[in-house]
Amino acid sequence: MQVKQLLSAHEWIAEDRKFFGKPNTGYDFSANDPVEAGRRITRLEEAKTKLSKNVNMRAMNMLGKAEEQFYADLFRAHEQIHAQGGAGQDDPGNPNEM
């Protein structure tokens, strides 16, 4: 009963059934130990999780450095403009400086 339910629920089972237990296939269980494959999947998933955290941290650090550089450049440009005589006639300046 359970096999019939699996066959109807998953089309790939019916399509790949002819390869079950055959040598040199993904279903060759004498060459591929399912328990070891499960362990390997677990190890790989853990490594993937660890790497994704490191990559995200590196990306965040790079973003922070880029933002700092942007604001430093912006402040430097702002200082240069004011050192050369202000921002122009249309600019009322900083209202807090009155």
Please supply descriptive tags for the structure shown above.
single chain, 98 residues, mainly alpha, 3 helices, 65% helix, 0% strand, rod-shaped, Structural maintenance of chromosomes protein 2
Can you give a write-up of this model?
The protein has one domain (2-72). Helix content is 65%, strand content 0%. It has three helices and no strands. The mean pLDDT is 84.
Helix/strand order: HHH
Query: What portion of residues belong to β-strands?
Result: under 5%
- How many strands, which pairing sense, and closed or not: the largest β-sheet? none
Low-confidence stretches: none
Number of separate domains = 1
N- and C-termini, Cα separation: 86 Å
Which class do the helix and strand fractions yield?
Answer: mainly alpha
H/I helix tally: 3
Mean pLDDT: 84
Query: What's the β-strand tally?
Result: 0
Helix amount, in percent?
Answer: 55-70%
Protein name: Structural maintenance of chromosomes protein 2
Topology of helices and strands:
Layout: H1 2-9, H2 11-16, H3 34-83
Describe the structure concisely for a colleague.
The protein is mostly helical. Helices cover 65% and strands 0% of the residues. The longest helix is centred in the middle third of the chain and has 50 residues, at 34-83.
